[in-house]
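Protein: Methionine adenosyltransferase
Species: Oribacterium sinus F0268
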Amino acid sequence: MVFLCLFEAFSHSVCKIERIIFMLFSSEQVSNGHPDKICDQISDAIVTDILKHDPKGRIAAECCIKDYDIVILGEITSSHTPDYDTLCRNVLKNVGLEDLDRYKIQELISVQSPDIAMGVDHDGAGDQGMMFGYATKETKEMLPIPYVLSTRALQKLRAFNLENAFSILKPDAKAQVSYDYKENRIDTFLISSQHSESVSLSQVREIIQKIMVETAAEMNLNTDFRILVNPTGRFVLGSSFADSGLTGRKIIADTYGGAAHHGGGAFSGKDPSKVDRSAAYMARKIAKDLVSAGKTDRCEVQLAYAIGVAEPVSVYLDCFGTEHENVGDLWRSVIEKYDLTPKGIISNLNLLNTDYNLVSSYGHFGKENLPWEI
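Structure follows.
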Protein backbone atom coordinates (compact mmCIF):
# COMPACT_ATOMS: atom_id res chain seq x y z
CA MET A 1 0.00 0.00 0.00
CA VAL A 2 1.30 3.43 -0.87
CA PHE A 3 0.28 6.50 1.09
CA LEU A 4 0.89 9.72 -0.78
CA CYS A 5 1.75 12.78 1.27
CA LEU A 6 1.69 16.10 -0.55
CA PHE A 7 3.03 19.30 0.92
CA GLU A 8 3.84 22.72 -0.41
CA ALA A 9 7.12 24.57 0.10
CA PHE A 10 6.96 28.29 -0.58
CA SER A 11 10.10 30.21 -1.59
CA HIS A 12 10.24 33.72 -3.08
CA SER A 13 6.52 33.60 -3.89
CA VAL A 14 7.08 30.46 -5.99
CA CYS A 15 4.97 27.47 -5.04
CA LYS A 16 6.87 24.22 -5.28
CA ILE A 17 5.01 20.97 -4.80
CA GLU A 18 7.01 17.94 -3.69
CA ARG A 19 5.76 14.39 -3.40
CA ILE A 20 7.02 12.07 -0.69
CA ILE A 21 6.04 8.41 -0.83
CA PHE A 22 5.76 6.53 2.46
CA MET A 23 5.14 2.78 2.40
CA LEU A 24 2.73 2.99 5.32
CA PHE A 25 0.20 0.24 5.92
CA SER A 26 -2.15 0.02 8.90
CA SER A 27 -3.83 -2.97 10.52
CA GLU A 28 -6.31 -3.18 13.36
CA GLN A 29 -7.30 -5.69 16.04
CA VAL A 30 -10.04 -5.56 18.67
CA SER A 31 -10.23 -7.15 22.12
CA ASN A 32 -12.61 -9.88 23.18
CA GLY A 33 -14.54 -7.21 25.08
CA HIS A 34 -15.51 -5.38 21.90
CA PRO A 35 -19.28 -5.80 21.39
CA ASP A 36 -18.90 -7.42 17.96
CA LYS A 37 -16.40 -9.87 19.42
CA ILE A 38 -18.71 -10.70 22.31
CA CYS A 39 -21.22 -11.78 19.67
CA ASP A 40 -18.61 -13.79 17.73
CA GLN A 41 -17.66 -15.61 20.93
CA ILE A 42 -21.26 -16.47 21.74
CA SER A 43 -21.84 -17.71 18.18
CA ASP A 44 -18.73 -19.90 18.22
CA ALA A 45 -19.54 -21.24 21.69
CA ILE A 46 -22.82 -22.45 20.19
CA VAL A 47 -21.05 -24.05 17.21
CA THR A 48 -18.52 -25.82 19.42
CA ASP A 49 -21.17 -27.09 21.83
CA ILE A 50 -23.44 -28.48 19.11
CA LEU A 51 -20.65 -30.19 17.16
CA LYS A 52 -19.37 -31.75 20.37
CA HIS A 53 -22.71 -33.51 20.84
CA ASP A 54 -23.83 -33.78 17.22
CA PRO A 55 -21.13 -33.78 14.50
CA LYS A 56 -23.84 -33.71 11.85
CA GLY A 57 -25.34 -30.50 13.21
CA ARG A 58 -25.97 -27.66 10.77
CA ILE A 59 -25.41 -24.29 12.38
CA ALA A 60 -25.75 -20.68 11.28
CA ALA A 61 -25.89 -18.91 14.63
CA GLU A 62 -25.72 -15.15 14.83
CA CYS A 63 -25.92 -12.92 17.86
CA CYS A 64 -26.57 -9.28 18.56
CA ILE A 65 -26.12 -7.37 21.79
CA LYS A 66 -27.14 -3.94 23.04
CA ASP A 67 -26.82 -2.92 26.67
CA TYR A 68 -28.12 -5.93 28.67
CA ASP A 69 -30.13 -7.45 25.79
CA ILE A 70 -28.78 -10.39 23.81
CA VAL A 71 -30.59 -11.95 20.86
CA ILE A 72 -29.44 -15.26 19.36
CA LEU A 73 -30.84 -15.78 15.89
CA GLY A 74 -30.27 -18.05 12.95
CA GLU A 75 -30.90 -21.50 11.56
CA ILE A 76 -29.87 -24.66 13.42
CA THR A 77 -30.70 -28.28 12.66
CA SER A 78 -29.34 -30.64 15.29
CA SER A 79 -30.25 -33.47 17.64
CA HIS A 80 -28.67 -31.40 20.41
CA THR A 81 -30.22 -28.29 21.90
CA PRO A 82 -27.63 -26.04 23.54
CA ASP A 83 -28.14 -24.35 26.87
CA TYR A 84 -28.01 -20.91 25.29
CA ASP A 85 -28.34 -19.09 28.60
CA THR A 86 -25.33 -20.83 30.15
CA LEU A 87 -23.20 -20.49 27.00
CA CYS A 88 -23.89 -16.75 26.82
CA ARG A 89 -23.17 -16.08 30.46
CA ASN A 90 -19.97 -18.11 30.34
CA VAL A 91 -18.75 -15.92 27.48
CA LEU A 92 -19.70 -12.73 29.33
CA LYS A 93 -17.91 -13.96 32.46
CA ASN A 94 -14.78 -14.90 30.50
CA VAL A 95 -14.71 -11.47 28.84
CA GLY A 96 -14.73 -9.84 32.27
CA LEU A 97 -18.14 -8.17 32.20
CA GLU A 98 -20.10 -7.38 35.34
CA ASP A 99 -23.72 -7.82 36.50
CA LEU A 100 -24.15 -11.06 34.58
CA ASP A 101 -27.60 -11.68 36.07
CA ARG A 102 -28.93 -8.49 34.45
CA TYR A 103 -28.48 -9.77 30.88
CA LYS A 104 -31.66 -10.91 29.13
CA ILE A 105 -31.23 -13.57 26.44
CA GLN A 106 -33.74 -14.15 23.65
CA GLU A 107 -33.63 -16.93 21.03
CA LEU A 108 -34.95 -16.62 17.48
CA ILE A 109 -33.94 -19.96 15.98
CA SER A 110 -35.43 -21.95 13.10
CA VAL A 111 -34.17 -25.07 11.27
CA GLN A 112 -31.88 -24.96 8.27
CA SER A 113 -33.60 -24.45 4.93
CA PRO A 114 -34.33 -27.84 3.30
CA ASP A 115 -33.23 -26.34 -0.02
CA ILE A 116 -29.74 -25.73 1.41
CA ALA A 117 -29.69 -29.09 3.22
CA MET A 118 -30.43 -30.89 -0.04
CA GLY A 119 -27.06 -29.84 -1.46
CA VAL A 120 -25.00 -30.07 1.72
CA ASP A 121 -26.27 -33.54 2.61
CA HIS A 122 -24.78 -34.77 -0.67
CA ASP A 123 -21.37 -33.35 0.24
CA GLY A 124 -21.79 -30.15 -1.76
CA ALA A 125 -20.77 -26.68 -0.66
CA GLY A 126 -23.16 -25.01 1.79
CA ASP A 127 -23.20 -21.81 -0.23
CA GLN A 128 -21.67 -20.09 -3.22
CA GLY A 129 -18.87 -17.60 -2.79
CA MET A 130 -15.13 -17.02 -2.82
CA MET A 131 -12.71 -17.41 0.07
CA PHE A 132 -9.14 -16.19 0.45
CA GLY A 133 -6.10 -17.42 2.33
CA TYR A 134 -2.85 -15.52 2.83
CA ALA A 135 0.64 -16.01 4.24
CA THR A 136 3.81 -13.94 4.36
CA LYS A 137 7.23 -14.72 5.76
CA GLU A 138 7.55 -11.31 7.47
CA THR A 139 6.64 -12.77 10.91
CA LYS A 140 6.88 -16.18 12.53
CA GLU A 141 3.09 -16.34 12.49
CA MET A 142 3.29 -15.78 8.71
CA LEU A 143 1.00 -12.80 9.13
CA PRO A 144 1.57 -9.07 8.38
CA ILE A 145 3.73 -7.18 10.89
CA PRO A 146 1.19 -4.45 11.81
CA TYR A 147 -1.54 -7.05 12.30
CA VAL A 148 0.66 -9.17 14.56
CA LEU A 149 1.70 -6.11 16.59
CA SER A 150 -1.93 -5.06 17.08
CA THR A 151 -2.98 -8.55 18.10
CA ARG A 152 -0.08 -9.21 20.46
CA ALA A 153 -0.54 -5.86 22.17
CA LEU A 154 -4.19 -6.59 22.91
CA GLN A 155 -3.32 -10.05 24.19
CA LYS A 156 -0.85 -8.41 26.58
CA LEU A 157 -3.55 -5.95 27.58
CA ARG A 158 -5.88 -8.88 28.26
CA ALA A 159 -3.22 -10.51 30.48
CA PHE A 160 -2.77 -7.24 32.39
CA ASN A 161 -6.52 -6.99 32.95
CA LEU A 162 -6.77 -10.56 34.22
CA GLU A 163 -3.87 -9.98 36.60
CA ASN A 164 -5.53 -6.84 37.94
CA ALA A 165 -9.09 -8.21 37.95
CA PHE A 166 -10.23 -5.46 35.53
CA SER A 167 -9.91 -2.91 38.34
CA ILE A 168 -7.89 -0.43 36.23
CA LEU A 169 -8.66 -1.11 32.59
CA LYS A 170 -11.84 -2.71 31.26
CA PRO A 171 -12.49 -5.35 28.58
CA ASP A 172 -13.25 -3.19 25.52
CA ALA A 173 -10.20 -2.15 23.48
CA LYS A 174 -8.87 -1.55 19.98
CA ALA A 175 -5.32 -1.48 18.64
CA GLN A 176 -4.04 -0.13 15.34
CA VAL A 177 -0.49 -0.07 13.99
CA SER A 178 0.82 1.89 11.00
CA TYR A 179 3.99 0.27 9.69
CA ASP A 180 6.50 1.77 7.28
CA TYR A 181 7.51 -1.04 4.93
CA LYS A 182 10.08 1.13 3.17
CA GLU A 183 12.03 1.85 6.34
CA ASN A 184 11.00 -1.35 8.16
CA ARG A 185 9.81 0.46 11.25
CA ILE A 186 6.67 1.20 13.22
CA ASP A 187 5.40 4.67 12.44
CA THR A 188 2.33 4.93 14.74
CA PHE A 189 0.99 2.69 17.51
CA LEU A 190 -2.57 3.40 18.63
CA ILE A 191 -4.53 1.73 21.42
CA SER A 192 -7.87 2.83 22.80
CA SER A 193 -8.81 1.01 25.99
CA GLN A 194 -11.84 1.23 28.21
CA HIS A 195 -10.90 2.12 31.77
CA SER A 196 -12.30 2.56 35.24
CA GLU A 197 -13.76 5.99 35.93
CA SER A 198 -11.39 6.44 38.87
CA VAL A 199 -8.27 6.04 36.71
CA SER A 200 -6.60 9.08 35.16
CA LEU A 201 -5.65 9.32 31.51
CA SER A 202 -1.98 9.59 32.50
CA GLN A 203 -2.23 6.26 34.33
CA VAL A 204 -3.89 4.63 31.33
CA ARG A 205 -1.23 5.98 28.99
CA GLU A 206 1.60 4.79 31.23
CA ILE A 207 0.25 1.23 31.30
CA ILE A 208 -0.51 1.05 27.59
CA GLN A 209 2.71 2.72 26.47
CA LYS A 210 4.64 0.04 28.36
CA ILE A 211 2.66 -2.66 26.57
CA MET A 212 3.32 -1.06 23.20
CA VAL A 213 7.07 -0.82 23.79
CA GLU A 214 7.28 -4.40 25.09
CA THR A 215 5.37 -5.70 22.08
CA ALA A 216 7.63 -3.90 19.61
CA ALA A 217 10.83 -4.89 21.44
CA GLU A 218 9.85 -8.57 21.46
CA MET A 219 9.62 -8.41 17.67
CA ASN A 220 12.99 -6.60 17.45
CA LEU A 221 11.33 -3.50 16.06
CA ASN A 222 11.85 0.19 16.83
CA THR A 223 10.30 1.68 19.97
CA ASP A 224 10.55 5.34 18.96
CA PHE A 225 7.17 5.32 17.22
CA ARG A 226 4.38 7.85 17.55
CA ILE A 227 2.15 6.84 20.47
CA LEU A 228 -1.59 7.43 20.61
CA VAL A 229 -3.56 6.27 23.66
CA ASN A 230 -7.26 7.03 24.04
CA PRO A 231 -7.10 10.07 21.72
CA THR A 232 -10.50 11.39 22.86
CA GLY A 233 -9.18 11.55 26.43
CA ARG A 234 -11.83 9.33 28.01
CA PHE A 235 -13.16 5.79 27.44
CA VAL A 236 -15.23 4.74 30.47
CA LEU A 237 -18.40 3.53 28.80
CA GLY A 238 -17.64 0.50 26.64
CA SER A 239 -18.75 -2.83 25.18
CA SER A 240 -22.48 -3.13 24.47
CA PHE A 241 -23.24 0.04 26.47
CA ALA A 242 -21.32 2.22 24.03
CA ASP A 243 -22.02 0.33 20.79
CA SER A 244 -24.27 -2.47 19.66
CA GLY A 245 -22.57 -5.71 18.69
CA LEU A 246 -23.20 -8.18 15.89
CA THR A 247 -21.66 -11.47 14.81
CA GLY A 248 -19.41 -11.28 11.76
CA ARG A 249 -18.66 -7.58 11.75
CA LYS A 250 -14.91 -7.86 12.40
CA ILE A 251 -13.87 -10.07 9.49
CA ILE A 252 -10.67 -8.13 8.74
CA ALA A 253 -9.56 -8.32 12.37
CA ASP A 254 -10.33 -12.05 12.17
CA THR A 255 -8.00 -12.60 9.22
CA TYR A 256 -5.09 -10.55 7.88
CA GLY A 257 -5.67 -6.98 8.97
CA GLY A 258 -6.56 -5.85 5.47
CA ALA A 259 -3.32 -7.05 3.84
CA ALA A 260 -5.18 -9.65 1.78
CA HIS A 261 -8.48 -9.90 -0.04
CA HIS A 262 -11.56 -11.12 1.81
CA GLY A 263 -14.53 -12.90 0.28
CA GLY A 264 -16.90 -11.11 2.62
CA GLY A 265 -18.29 -14.07 4.52
CA ALA A 266 -17.80 -14.24 8.28
CA PHE A 267 -16.48 -17.37 10.01
CA SER A 268 -17.98 -17.32 13.50
CA GLY A 269 -21.30 -19.02 14.11
CA LYS A 270 -21.02 -21.38 11.14
CA ASP A 271 -20.43 -25.12 11.11
CA PRO A 272 -17.71 -26.24 8.65
CA SER A 273 -20.15 -27.32 5.95
CA LYS A 274 -20.26 -23.57 5.28
CA VAL A 275 -17.32 -22.94 2.98
CA ASP A 276 -17.17 -19.35 4.23
CA ARG A 277 -15.36 -20.91 7.16
CA SER A 278 -13.86 -24.22 6.05
CA ALA A 279 -12.54 -23.10 2.65
CA ALA A 280 -11.01 -19.97 4.17
CA TYR A 281 -9.13 -22.19 6.63
CA MET A 282 -7.96 -24.45 3.79
CA ALA A 283 -6.89 -21.48 1.66
CA ARG A 284 -4.82 -20.22 4.60
CA LYS A 285 -3.22 -23.66 5.02
CA ILE A 286 -2.28 -23.82 1.35
CA ALA A 287 -0.74 -20.36 1.40
CA LYS A 288 1.10 -21.09 4.64
CA ASP A 289 2.37 -24.45 3.36
CA LEU A 290 3.82 -22.82 0.25
CA VAL A 291 5.58 -20.08 2.25
CA SER A 292 6.80 -22.55 4.89
CA ALA A 293 8.29 -24.76 2.18
CA GLY A 294 10.26 -21.80 0.81
CA LYS A 295 8.46 -21.88 -2.53
CA THR A 296 7.40 -18.24 -2.19
CA ASP A 297 7.81 -15.39 0.28
CA ARG A 298 4.21 -14.23 0.08
CA CYS A 299 1.11 -15.96 -1.18
CA GLU A 300 -2.62 -15.46 -1.58
CA VAL A 301 -5.01 -18.27 -2.51
CA GLN A 302 -8.60 -17.90 -3.68
CA LEU A 303 -11.10 -20.75 -3.70
CA ALA A 304 -14.60 -20.32 -5.13
CA TYR A 305 -17.63 -22.62 -4.82
CA ALA A 306 -21.17 -23.11 -6.09
CA ILE A 307 -23.86 -24.18 -3.64
CA GLY A 308 -24.46 -27.91 -3.73
CA VAL A 309 -21.32 -28.59 -5.83
CA ALA A 310 -18.40 -30.34 -4.15
CA GLU A 311 -15.42 -29.30 -6.26
CA PRO A 312 -14.42 -25.62 -6.32
CA VAL A 313 -15.35 -23.76 -9.49
CA SER A 314 -11.98 -21.97 -9.42
CA VAL A 315 -8.60 -22.04 -7.70
CA TYR A 316 -6.41 -18.93 -7.95
CA LEU A 317 -2.84 -18.39 -6.74
CA ASP A 318 -0.90 -15.12 -6.50
CA CYS A 319 2.69 -14.96 -5.23
CA PHE A 320 3.16 -11.22 -5.95
CA GLY A 321 6.41 -11.87 -7.79
CA THR A 322 8.07 -13.45 -4.72
CA GLU A 323 7.88 -17.04 -5.98
CA HIS A 324 11.00 -19.20 -6.18
CA GLU A 325 9.40 -21.69 -8.56
CA ASN A 326 7.19 -21.39 -11.60
CA VAL A 327 3.75 -20.17 -10.44
CA GLY A 328 2.00 -22.51 -12.87
CA ASP A 329 3.83 -25.47 -11.31
CA LEU A 330 2.86 -24.27 -7.83
CA TRP A 331 -0.78 -23.99 -8.90
CA ARG A 332 -0.74 -27.52 -10.33
CA SER A 333 0.82 -28.85 -7.13
CA VAL A 334 -2.05 -27.33 -5.14
CA ILE A 335 -4.65 -28.98 -7.38
CA GLU A 336 -2.92 -32.35 -7.07
CA LYS A 337 -2.08 -32.28 -3.35
CA TYR A 338 -5.18 -30.91 -1.62
CA ASP A 339 -8.71 -32.27 -1.48
CA LEU A 340 -10.68 -29.06 -1.87
CA THR A 341 -14.17 -30.51 -1.54
CA PRO A 342 -16.02 -29.49 1.64
CA LYS A 343 -15.99 -33.09 2.82
CA GLY A 344 -12.25 -33.38 2.17
CA ILE A 345 -11.47 -30.10 3.90
CA ILE A 346 -13.55 -31.00 6.96
CA SER A 347 -11.87 -34.40 7.23
CA ASN A 348 -8.28 -33.27 6.59
CA LEU A 349 -8.49 -30.30 8.98
CA ASN A 350 -10.55 -32.22 11.57
CA LEU A 351 -13.05 -29.38 11.65
CA LEU A 352 -15.77 -31.35 13.43
CA ASN A 353 -13.49 -31.72 16.46
CA THR A 354 -12.18 -28.17 16.67
CA ASP A 355 -12.74 -25.87 19.63
CA TYR A 356 -13.89 -22.72 17.87
CA ASN A 357 -13.75 -20.82 21.14
CA LEU A 358 -9.99 -20.61 20.45
CA VAL A 359 -10.50 -18.46 17.35
CA SER A 360 -13.56 -16.38 18.19
CA SER A 361 -11.32 -13.54 19.40
CA TYR A 362 -7.79 -12.30 18.57
CA GLY A 363 -7.81 -13.83 15.10
CA HIS A 364 -8.42 -17.16 13.39
CA PHE A 365 -4.84 -17.49 12.14
CA GLY A 366 -1.33 -17.51 13.54
CA LYS A 367 -2.21 -19.57 16.63
CA GLU A 368 -0.32 -22.76 17.33
CA ASN A 369 -1.86 -26.24 17.12
CA LEU A 370 -4.86 -25.26 14.99
CA PRO A 371 -5.18 -27.82 12.16
CA TRP A 372 -4.88 -25.19 9.42
CA GLU A 373 -1.77 -23.70 11.07
CA ILE A 374 0.18 -26.94 11.36
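Remarks: The CA atoms of residues 192 and 230 lie 4 Å apart.
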